[in-house]
Amino acid sequence: MTSTRVMPAEWAPQSAVMLTWPHPGTDWFSCMEEVEPVFLAIARAVLRFQNLLISCEQVFRAERLDRELNQWARENNLPGRAHCVAAPANDTWARDHGPLAVTTPDGTRLMDFRFNAWGGKFPWEKDDALNQHLAVAGCFGDTPLERVDFVLEGGSIESDGEGTVMVTSECLMTPTRNPDYDRAGIEALLDETLGAKRVLWLNHGYLAGDDTDSHIDTLARFVSPDHICFVRCENPEDEHYPALSAMEEELRQFQQADGSPYHLAPLPWPDAINDNEGERLPATYANFLIINGAVLVPVYDLPQDQAALITFRELFPDREIVPIPCRPLIEQHGSLHCVTMQLPAGVVEL
């Protein structure tokens, strides 16, 4: 039976953005002073446009964030309000342990896929249970939360809101996620659970320092149903050049449902950023977040930041482009989109 579900595009109306706040029990313990300002910048940017749902393992921190963020929002006459709750978490990557929304004839549902830290790379049990904690706490209102016995991270799938999704084979076919599924089985499950009538598979794509096995949200993103932006590396001496050139060629071969090609927009390629051990970190401008009326864009204090912001103003002329300094986030191998998860209109009402 064909699913009547549809996974909304990120530009669909939203009620809130979800954040999982860092705490000393995460890998951020040695750099909390550097990373918390990034989360605060994201939180305040979101509150300018819509509500915010924050979970925090520390009760006192959740209470303080709730008080201070809402006071700031009221003082500035902002439309958004924060709802901060205490809930256990292993880490902060809400994009991957947060719920995925679908619209159905009976209303919105939240799909709670399994999370195993990108194939068992890190502790994950508290993150995998987080959505259930939030549902019990009433954070999702009357929106049903449906558990799915399949490992899927939000960063690994892009939806155009019209039944087409884009994924990478390196991620979804990794045997440490769903070893009993072949490509056809994955496509059938994505159709059943998310209403994915078409799955566009990228077989190439690479980002140094990435723990996710090439999540799509670091490489290529829908900006409208007929338009895809992607990271382009033009330096043949760069280690990324072969894989990203092959990925661009694949994108050029993709067709829309009506058979026409996609409009493609390259994103600037940032200069290399290395950690203290000399390992390259996964800086990418593809890790942006679309919210109501705005696009939050990660910047890294690099010469390419301004070119990236100009590109996003061209891609989203009707939305405000808000730069968010994300250099501390990539120290733990993620960026802005990775730490956020949007929730559709009607889910979080404050």
UniProtKB/TrEMBL annotation:
Could you tell me the superkingdom of the organism this chain comes from? Bacteria
Keyword line: Hydrolase
Does the record carry Chaperone as a key word?
Answer: no
- GO terms, molecular function: agmatine deiminase activity; protein-arginine deiminase activity
Matches recorded under SUPFAM superfamilies = Pentein
Biological process terms from the Gene Ontology for this record are: putrescine biosynthetic process
- Name by which UniProt lists this protein: Agmatine deiminase
Q: Which organism is it from?
A: Marinobacter segnicrescens
